Amino acid sequence: MAAATRPPDAPWSVAELARRIDAALRQGFPTPIRVAGEISGFRDRTHWYFDLKDEQAVVNCAMFASNAKRMPFTPRDGLHIIAKGRLEFYAKGGKVTLLVDALEPVGAGALDLAYRALCDELRGLGWFAQERKRPLPAFPRRIAVLTSRTGAALQDVLVTMRKRCPAVEVLTADVRVQGDRAAPEIARAVRWISKHASRLGIDALLVTRGGGSMEDLWCFNDRDVAKAILDCSVPVVAAIGHETDTTIAELVADERCATPTQAAMRLTPDNAALARQVGATHRRLAAQIARLVRAESQRLASVARHPALSDPARLVDAAAERCEDLGHELRQSMNAALADRTGRLDVLATLLERQRPTVFLARGATRVDDAARRLNATLDHAVERSRERVQALARHLDAVAPQRVLERGYSVTTDSRGRLVRSVVQAPTGGTLMTRVSDGLIRSVVQAKDAAPKPAKQPTRGLFDEGNTDSQ
Known about the structure:
Layout: H1 2-5, H2 14-28, E1 33-45, E2 47-53, E3 58-63, H3 65-68, E4 80-90, E5 95-105, H4 107-124, E6 142-147, H5 152-164, E7 169-174, H6 182-200, E8 204-209, H7 223-230, E9 236-240, H8 248-252, E10 255-256, H9 260-267, H10 271-304, H11 307-310, H12 312-354, H13 357-400, H14 402-407, E11 412-415, E12 432-437, E13 440-445
Helix pairs in contact: 5-9, 6-7
């Protein structure tokens, strides 16, 4: 109603125009809309951004990561596809964008291109590496078969397994094996079996379906299906389509078989072959047991002929005779050894008598007495000589004692500080001198000094000067 009352020449706000464009797009085009064209300017930035073009126009496209990760291939420039999604006007950018939910390659050539691109990527990640693949169980208890319940492949598998080994149980997982919703169902079923395999007693998983075109088998070229098979907790056998068909699920699986029947034969042992094998094993064991019985019988007969069993008394007599001989030899050896030890003991007794301690003590006491006498004589002589020397030194010391020298008329002169005066130079005029004689001390003052001529040779008694000082 607001639009009806708007004056014809009234301006529109930009936001209002944007809302009207977005509403027109939502009401004027079906949802979802499918658009065919060629990819250009592809950019992978978590979300996918690209242009979809033909000879006359270009449409900007975006695909969110939640949808992109479900795609079985990564688009590239020049690839012709059908994009399914909805149109949306981005007001802030001022442009129309096709928000893509899914991409479908156009034609078999495009599918083959997408298939090869995904193969190259997964091969680079090591998903096809032979060394990571696990061996199949030789005698499985239960096998899970993942396929369509209405397909002929399931019947081929069940009939073949029932004929080959009825003891092997089969658990069927019914899933779509064709169409857009097939790949998510297959991936969920594989993950469920992997999670509960231990509880259900499942030893292996068979993923299979019958033949069809590349479009019919395309769900088995899905990246999510390949990742589920790669992470499965039990070995996986894949048999998809005819022998000439090769899907990515088969390349990732632990083993690929050409047909469902071949896969069933590969997973289950042959009952008749097992019976033949058991019979052959039984015959080999019986023959081996018979040979062992014959060998042990011959050995028992040989042992029975041994003298220890045929005539044991003779062995006992021989052993008793041998014991008696050994006893006689032992007694002779003991007597000889005893005689030898007795002779050696007598010799040692004689030597011990010669080396008695009392004899050595008497000899030692005599030597000690002699040494003591010589030591006492030497000490007495040394003491006498030391006494005489001390007396001589005492007489000499008494003769040269300072008091004796003073008594003979000599004196000792010192200055006021007690220093010995040896020269007139040391006695300054007016200075006080102290002269010691034999019976006392003379204090004098120097009034004059006369230097005497220096004698040719100093007397030996240079320490003493004759007292010639004036007394005060």
